[in-house]
Amino acid sequence: MADDNDPREREEIKACERVALPVSLVVIQLITVRMVLLSKLALNVYRKPATSSLLLFVALLALFYERL
């Protein structure tokens, strides 16, 4: 068992955290998008052009704020 003050172990933990946080955020966003798209398909509102354009606008806005 490694010491709690081992610098190599702390660096490994930090490296895992740097990867795990963005990956988990992307996975959550993909799950949310999938649920929204499935609910829209189930409600059959994709045939309205206004809904599709609004969905595209909100997706672009979310992407913009995600990058800030």
Q: Could you tell me the mean pLDDT?
A: 80
Number of discrete domains:
1
Distance between the termini: 41 Å
The tally of strands reads 0
Which term fits the overall shape?
elongated
Cα-based radius of gyration, to the nearest Å: 20 Å
Strand-pairing-aware structural class: mainly alpha
Continuous helix count: 2
What is the helix fraction of residues, given as a range?
over 70%
**Oligomer, anyone?**
single chain
Strand content: under 5%
Q: What are the low-pLDDT stretches, counting only 5+ consecutive residues below 50? A: none
Order of helices and strands: HH
Q: Characterize the main sheet.
A: none
Keywords: Membrane, Transmembrane, Transmembrane helix
Transmembrane segments: 20-37, 49-65
Structure description:
There is one protein chain. The chain has two helices and no strands. The chain has helices at residues 7-43, 49-67. The protein has one domain (7-67).
